[in-house]
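I had to read the description of the data format several times before I understood it. In essence, backbone conformation is discretised, so a fold becomes a row of integers matching the chain in length. I therefore recommend that a typical entry be quoted early in the introduction. For illustration, here is how one protein appears when written out as sequence plus structure tokens.

***
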Amino acid sequence: MLFTVGALGLAPQQQAPATASRSPALSHANGIEALRARVRNLPADPTGWSSLGMAYVQQARSTADPAAYTRARAALRKSLVLQPSGNFAAETGMGALEASLHRFSEALTWARRATTSDPYSAPAQGVLADALTQLGRYEESYAAVQRMTDLRPDSGALARASYSWELRGDTRRARDLMEKSYQAAGTPSDKAFALTHLATLALETGDPNTAVDLANTGLATLPGDPALLEARARAHAALGQNRQAVSDYTTAIAAAPLPQYLLGLGDLQESLGHPEKAEEQYNVLRAQDRLRKANGGVADVDGVLFEADHGDPGTAVAMGRTALRQRPFLAVHDAMAWALHRAGRDAEALEQADLALALGTVSAPFYFHRALINEALGRTEAARTDLRQALNIDPHFHPVDAPRARAALSRIEAAR
């Protein structure tokens, strides 16, 4: 899923202007430099500042550079100073910025302002949909996606529509809409985005060969894109092509050391019997978490799951509880369920696991987590059903957990 482990947890947002180039970094740099030249020439133009702010938001999301978020906020605030009211572009940008920082209540506030300033702005409706989705207000988010699609059925609207159906477990419709998003994409970045998620949908429904092909197509369009590299790494790992998987993860991390990439490579190295190499990645994750705490940030899904498996489960529960208060989203319920299970609190864990699957989402990790919770509670038939479901969805869903799922299923069936 777009929101499970290894993912950013967001539907696509308004894209900054992009130009064709040999790498994502160059594309961002070229586009940003042009926008910086514009605000130097027209320093009193609020639209120029809002465009620059959104470009920095996109750069930050792609490169994991915290300084880009600071620059984004400064540019968007400058636009709002120049035009305090009715500035829907800057208000939309602020919503996208807050959503990228996982401050979804603040993102919703800005999105409401933007849609009030301009009810006919499709990008503002998109940011509204993103915030509502992550706040667990799913029916409202579907309505916002529909409004966005009615206003402008472009690549971003179609991608969000795909995501809304993926949440509800309709992977066929999600795939069809993401293919339409790809066909409608007007920039290399938009095409790469759609192909990344088409590859992810293929991978997470048990088709790693198609995932590799789609990722290769995307990398031909935008070489070095870290999200495409991660998707291809996961597909190579599922196919047992471990050398290629390690290489792709390593290249993705060099471009953008996002937690899901680090955790993905660490878990792959662990599954290959390379504990020291796994610890290299886990240590970077621990350093990132210390920085998060120092800055007062809230842990995301990857941080909660990592703490549950490689740290202190009690701490993971506390992290998950804080995360749920800010983001009562399906993937956070799943992470909280796993943290509670690891802490030995399985009755509470089952409640959270059921919430994670409440919309009918097709997710092998979600079913695997609930299966082990059910087994711990003595609900062996429910555990057996969930394990079969997880392995039917994707028999290679995780380099460590998929073998654990097969072992648990064999153990349960042997005891029948």
In short: The chain has a mean pLDDT of 92. The chain is about 75% helix and 0% strand.
